[in-house]
């Protein structure tokens, strides 16, 4: 009740001049097709006394070897789990100490000899030599000391499994966002993607879609970009929370928009505040807005089934336990709607990997602190 009172006071005191009529971005309902989702407890990872596994624990999966890598950011360790056997409980097949002082928030396993490490708080992208156990080079997406004109508002990557960093022909590409909403910002200059080229030359690409231009979407949760990469087609896929469309981006950064909405007919409504209203910098206000607003998130390319999965989160009317119900939407290789189904609310949607048999999500309903449990989701359509 106290938190609710604070939010109401913030919305009503000193902010009248910043109020505007909210705008609803609504999709048209069409015939809904129900998917069949099958869940199995496929992976249980044993955790030693030092390891804490959370929705934000960085992981990477090598489909060729069946190895799952997990990074222990607190103790600077890389743990390897060998999947594909008959054992239901997997113990680390190897543990490597990683020599870095930085807090690694994301990594990619490049080869038996090298890792790509990323520290979001410092904007450090580090190449790590596993053989010699050291960082060999460090780059940044926003070079220190570089001043940008007012027409440029680039973001460093906010990397996770739901917005991965890729090394593509010696170019490192990732997607991220800036906090806040500004009425006077140069809309095309607020870009999502950053690319580091050889010679440490950095380029910035792709502004938000048009729905973001005039309205206030809270400046945080609904600004987060979700991405995936189709290596065969050399295309990036971009899902934005307030947009019913998905953006398909080719190797030359040319954008095509394709419908990728739920069949339900969903309305995503902006805040009743002007873009410059300072209320959005209160975390409680923006969280409450997010929890009560339908939003899209993950876009996942499945190379084994040659299709795409987009996730929609719908508000749950439960005052005691507020949350959002995720729905998995399937699009075929031509981005045609094939169906949707509700998913468990316990899945960590930023912590998953794709295998030949389906997607494995970290299950936060698991209460055993000595185990990290990944539940496999098999999708039939």
Automatic annotation (TrEMBL):
InterPro entries: DUF4221 (IPR025316). Pfam families: DUF4221. It comes from Chitinophaga jiangningensis. It comes from the Bacteria. This is DUF4221 domain-containing protein. PROSITE patterns: PROKAR_LIPOPROTEIN. The lineage of its organism: Bacteria, Pseudomonadati, Bacteroidota, Chitinophagia, Chitinophagales.
């Amino acid at each position: 009740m106290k938190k609710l009172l604070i939010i109401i006071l913030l919305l009503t005191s000193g902010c009248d001049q910043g109020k505007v009529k909210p705008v609803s971005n609504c999709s048209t309902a069409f015939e809904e097709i129900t998917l069949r989702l099958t869940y199995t407890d496929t992976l249980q990872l044993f955790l030693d006394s030092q390891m804490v596994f959370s929705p934000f624990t960085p992981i990477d999966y090598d489909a060729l070897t069946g190895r799952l890598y997990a990074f222990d950011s607190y103790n600077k360790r890389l743990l390897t789990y060998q999947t594909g056997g008959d054992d239901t409980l997997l113990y680390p097949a190897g543990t490597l100490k990683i020599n870095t002082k930085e807090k690694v928030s994301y990594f990619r396993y490049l080869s038996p000899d090298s890792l790509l490490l990323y520290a979001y708080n410092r904007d450090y992208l580090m190449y790590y030599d596993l053989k010699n156990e050291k960082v060999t080079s460090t780059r940044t997406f926003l070079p220190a000391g570089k001043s940008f004109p007012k027409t440029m508002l680039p973001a460093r990557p906010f990397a996770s499994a739901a917005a991965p960093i890729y090394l593509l022909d010696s170019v490192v590409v990732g997607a991220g966002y800036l906090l806040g909403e500004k009425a006077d910002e140069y809309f095309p200059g607020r870009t999502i993607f950053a690319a580091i080229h050889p010679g440490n030359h950095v380029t910035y690409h792709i502004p938000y879609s048009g729905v973001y231009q005039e309205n206030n979407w809270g400046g945080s949760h609904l600004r987060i970009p979700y991405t995936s990469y189709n290596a065969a087609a050399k295309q990036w896929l971009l899902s934005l929370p307030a947009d019913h469309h998905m953006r398909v981006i080719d190797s030359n950064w040319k954008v095509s928009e394709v419908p990728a909405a739920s069949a339900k007919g969903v309305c995503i409504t902006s805040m009743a505040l002007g873009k410059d209203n300072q209320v959005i910098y209160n975390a409680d206000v923006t969280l409450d807005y997010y929890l009560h607003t339908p939003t899209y998130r993950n876009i996942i390319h499945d190379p084994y089934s040659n299709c795409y999965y987009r996730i929609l989160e719908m508000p749950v009317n439960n005052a005691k336990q507020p949350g959002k119900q995720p729905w998995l939407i399937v699009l075929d290789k031509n981005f045609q709607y094939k169906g949707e189904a509700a998913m468990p609310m316990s899945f960590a949607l930023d912590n998953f990997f794709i295998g030949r048999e389906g997607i494995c999500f970290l299950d936060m309903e698991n209460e055993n602190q000595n185990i990290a449990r990944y539940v496999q989701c098999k999708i039939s359509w």
